[in-house]
Design goal:
The chain has about 950 residues and is of the alpha+beta class. It is built from 30 helices and 37 strands. An 8-stranded mixed sheet has the order 21-34-33-32-22-30-31-35, sandwiched between helices. The chain has a 7-stranded antiparallel sheet with strand order 24-23-29-28-27-26-25, with helices on both faces. Strand 3 (about 35-45) and strand 4 (about 45-50) form a beta hairpin.
């Protein structure tokens, strides 16, 4: 009969638990006043109300009234909106949201243990994307530097207070638990038990002494656990504290019953479990203390970024120099920075030269030389020179402020994998409670003595060993540390989803100009013809060519980009960036040909081959050498510039957009990871082939437009590839938006490329490798955390329930269960902190599995007049692809008719339509010359 009643009671308890925790909740409707919707939320062991209903189309104010302290509820996070607000203890904090679109917007505490929901109903267009301006800016203080410091200091102070409070409770717990354990456990040793029974007074072995020792631990040390746990149950949102307080309260009440009415129980069931209660609570406090200290380092990235802020600026005024707070600097102010000082804000140099350490922003260790006209970034460190610069960005528009905003948004967002853990955690505690109830019932069916006692012990062990906290922490801790680590190395993830998607990348599409290459013309090759050898020489030795200083002097008078590249290369070699060149007389610019002039009595002619040959008198052999050099350079898609002095050709200079030093190494690293690399370029086929061969790229698509780039990305996705597009974020914006992961090369002055998921601050392709390696490491870390959490609970709960007893007579003591629970979440925290050890180029690469080879044989939209942007499922037919083969199709070459330079259509400075053809120009100067007499120039295909 007892068994029947036990089953009936268990069924009733199960039904009650299911109804209580899973029944639909009544939503609290926000009040509307003066065009704002307002809701009051009490934070005390949970959110009350936890479900708030608002109307779409109207701004929202949530007033969080926090009536407690402690780490768990110190933040409220809206992951869908990218908002993380600090909630001060025992104070009101307002979170202002814009008008939101209909839908559900969850919010949770910083430890992902307390949960609430904002439900938006009705019709209306929301402003979700703008939420961060009202939420994150307030949370980080980007609009007010003093507010940021204040919030950060308050956050640190509260964490220190919590650590101090945990230490005090731990000391009290240890002081009372150790004697309690000795009294309860030593008698289990036969010899010691006999000695204690005959020597010590009877009251020492009395359960009343154990009650006295346990009471301070139960009611003082365990008060935060009991308070939070029962409040969470009252809010119908139970969590780890709820399980611990339920288990310890059951054990304490059972022990108290045994102490007061021992005769009401069978002889074998009269042992109290005070030592288990005290040990469980003390171990939990110890685990919370370790966890709080470990978690203190997860926000180190934001703290480090905040610490870079400069408080004072030297502003140049009409009345001299004046030091003012950085927050008071306005756009247009002239700021002076002295050697060794940090730059307060962003701007453009107006005078002076120096080198600047940008490692704190870009991750690059080498200082960058800057001079007049160069852009500089706030919070970087000045070298040995003194500069003055004009402020261009202040407050929340600075690069540092945008970095903080991006990192904060990424840390508060949820990765898709976290949603799985959240769904499990949402039902975890009620399920554990049901398991505990039925554990007791099943033990009643056991044909053995003391089955009631064993049932109680096992039920308590099930409640105590379960740890939903480990599940809640498994993902967000790793995301927080990884995004901060990425910012340290110049890789800014826009969201946790971008971080997770980067792990899945198996194909990387690279735009050539500005991504693989430097993005501006440079001298890449020089053939010296002043002697009989007539062979190529190192670019760094071009100044040693007799008469080349005269060439540089004449070119310095020209405004053409090719001339600027030659002059810059010459100045760099002679180490005189702004040094004087010889005077030039009788300077003449021949549009479409070149320039000429007299320098120190020498006649200098510089330009294309036809122009120069018309002004010199060379024999056939020399002319052939010049022609061969020009042809060789042209085959490599490099623009040849011929230079002659006193009627003798002295050099042929090749100008091209040079490859970045790290491009080849980065592409090789990607290929080592099993990632296919595709290069896109607007150059003609010969150029694409040459660059692809040099870099070891097996897939190159030539003559593409921005729409063509998007089509290539779309086609790769149709082949079930996870595509990352890497570009400059301007002409590449459609492809960046289309790709699974868009990576924008940051210039150091424009961080937030809205169409990209990842911003690479140092504009190096090695940052792509860093982003992929960091994502791989992070996802492996998250999987380990989830493995710890799920594996621990999946094994621990059955063992605690007693499944091993029939085979090996093994029962798990509630004390051991409590110890395991206390350190399970700590293991997750410590494992997540291993991400702090990540260093680029030192991480073990993760190689992608085998896939179907790429098939890029399709026609570009510019060839078929289709647009991938208007079709989600884009299919095309043929290819312009380099696989180290000659392609049979003929392609157009876009040549500037004025200077003869090969022009990438997407990079053209200007265009004209003449005689039914579009003509591309490398500069507005060339376009202006063409306008003077279009018929004078050949504009063939």
């Amino acid at each position: 009969m007892t068994l029947v009643w036990s089953i009936l009671v268990a069924v009733a308890l199960t039904a009650f638990i299911v109804w209580f925790f899973f029944a639909p909740r009544k939503a609290h409707k926000a009040q509307v006043s003066q065009g704002m919707q307002t809701a009051h939320v009490v934070v005390r062991g949970g959110y009350e109300p936890s479900l708030i209903e608002v109307k779409a189309g109207t701004p929202i104010v949530l007033d969080f009234d926090r009536k407690e302290s402690g780490e768990c509820s110190s933040h409220v996070v809206f992951p869908e909106l990218g908002i993380d607000r600090t909630l001060q203890a025992f104070a009101h904090t307002e979170v202002r949201l814009p008008a939101l679109a209909p839908g559900e917007y969850p919010f949770a505490c910083g430890m992902n243990m307390l949960h609430g929901m904002l439900r938006v109903t009705g019709k209306g267009n929301g402003e979700t994307a703008a939420a961060e301006s009202n939420g994150v800016s307030e949370a980080t203080g980007l609009s007010d530097a003093e507010q940021l410091e204040q919030l950060q200091s308050a956050d640190d102070a509260e964490r220190e207070h919590e650590i101090g409070e945990l230490k005090r409770r731990l000391i009290v717990g240890i002081a009372f638990t150790v004697p309690e354990l000795l009294i309860a456990m030593l008698p289990m040793i036969p010899a010691v038990g006999a000695w204690m029974a005959h020597t010590l007074p009877a009251w020492v072995m009395s359960p009343w002494l154990q009650l006295i020792l346990t009471a301070p631990v139960m009611f003082y040390c365990g008060w935060p656990v009991h308070r939070t746990g029962w409040l969470a149950i009252a809010h119908r949102a139970p969590e780890m504290n709820s399980l611990v307080t339920t288990g310890t309260c059951v054990a304490f009440l059972y022990s108290l019953f045994v102490t007061i009415w021992p005769d009401a129980l069978p002889v074998g069931s009269r042992e109290p479990y005070y030592e288990a209660v005290a040990t469980i609570i003390t171990l939990m406090i110890l685990g919370q203390l370790f966890e709080a200290k470990a978690q203190a380092g997860t926000g180190a990235a934001i703290k480090a970024l905040v610490g870079l802020r400069v408080n004072t600026a030297h502003v140049v005024t009409e009345h001299g120099m004046r030091d003012i707070p950085t927050a008071d600097v306005a756009v247009g102010d002239i700021i002076e920075v002295r050697p060794g000082e940090s730059l307060p804000i962003d701007g453009i140099v107006v005078s002076g030269h120096t080198s600047i350490d940008e490692s704190m922003v870009t991750g690059e260790s080498m200082p960058v030389a800057v001079g007049e006209g160069a852009s500089v970034v706030g919070s970087t460190v000045n070298g040995n020179g003194t500069i003055r610069y004009r402020a261009t960005r202040v407050g929340s528009q600075t690069v540092l402020a945008q970095i903080i905003r991006l990192v904060r948004n990424a840390q508060t967002s949820k990765a898709p994998i976290q949603r799985i853990a959240d769904r499990v955690a949402g039902v975890f505690v009620p399920v554990v409670m049901i398991i505990a109830v039925w554990t007791f019932v099943f033990w009643q069916m056991a044909p053995m003595p003391l089955h009631v006692l064993y049932g109680i012990v096992c039920a308590i062990s099930v409640l105590v060993i379960a740890c939903p906290c480990a599940l809640g922490l498994a993902t967000p801790l790793s995301i927080t540390i990884a995004t901060g680590k990425g910012a340290q190395y110049g890789v800014l993830f826009r969201s946790a989803q971008a971080l997770e998607n980067t792990h899945r990348i198996d194909t990387v599409v690279l735009d050539k100009t500005g991504t693989i290459t430097v993005g501006k013309p440079q001298v890449v090759d020089v053939v010296g013809l002043a002697d009989d050898d007539g062979g190529p020489i190192d670019v760094s030795h071009m100044a040693k060519i007799p008469g080349f200083s005269y060439v540089a002097a004449v070119e310095a008078k020209s405004e053409h980009p090719l001339a600027e590249a030659i002059v810059q290369a010459y100045r760099s070699e002679v180490q005189a960036p702004h040094g004087a060149l010889p005077q030039v007389r009788d300077f003449h610019n021949e549009p479409g040909g070149g320039v000429s002039g007299h320098v120190e009595g020498h006649r200098v002619v510089v330009g294309n081959e036809r122009f120069v040959q018309a002004h010199v008198d060379e024999d056939a052999a020399v002319s052939k050498r010049v022609h061969d050099a020009v042809e060789q350079m042209a085959e490599k898609a490099r623009t040849p510039v011929v230079a002659a002095v006193d009627g003798v050709v002295i050099a042929v200079v090749a100008v091209a957009d040079a490859l970045k030093e790290t491009s080849a190494q980065a592409i090789e690293a990607l290929q080592m990871r099993g990632i296919d690399v595709v290069m896109l370029t607007g150059d003609h086929e010969a150029t694409a082939q040459a660059i692809a061969r040099e870099l070891g790229i097996t897939h190159a698509v030539a003559q593409v437009t921005p729409a063509d780039k998007e089509a290539v990305v779309c086609e790769l996705q149709n082949q079930h590839r996870v595509v990352a597009m890497v570009g400059d974020g301007i002409n590449d914006a459609p492809a960046l938006a289309r790709a699974d992961v868009g990576m924008a090369m940051g210039s150091g002055t424009d961080v937030a490329v809205e169409s990209a998921d990842v911003t690479l601050m140092n504009s190096s392709l090695e940052s792509v490798v860093t982003a992929i390696d960091l994502s791989d490491r992070t996802m492996r870390n998250i999987h380990q955390n989830l493995g710890f959490a799920l594996g621990y609970n999946g094994l621990g709960i059955p063992v605690a329930a007693g499944v091993l007893y029939p085979l090996w007579h093994v029962l798990l003591s509630p004390m051991i269960a409590g110890a395991a629970m206390a350190f399970s979440s700590l293991s997750v925290v410590l494992n997540a902190n291993r991400l702090h050890a990540f260093v680029p180029n030192h991480a073990k690469p993760v190689r992608r599995g085998a896939r179907t080879p790429l098939n890029l044989r399709f026609a570009l939209p510019s060839q078929t007049l289709q647009s991938c942007g208007t079709h989600t499922d884009c299919r095309h037919e043929s290819i312009t692809e380099h696989e180290h083969k000659e392609h049979t199709m003929a392609h157009q070459e876009h040549i500037d008719p004025i200077c003869g330079m090969v022009v990438d259509p997407k990079d053209a400075a200007d265009t004209r339509v003449y005689d039914g053809r579009t003509i591309y120009f490398c500069s507005k100067h060339c376009a202006g010359v063409f306008d003077e007499d279009p018929a004078k120039y050949e504009v063939g295909q």
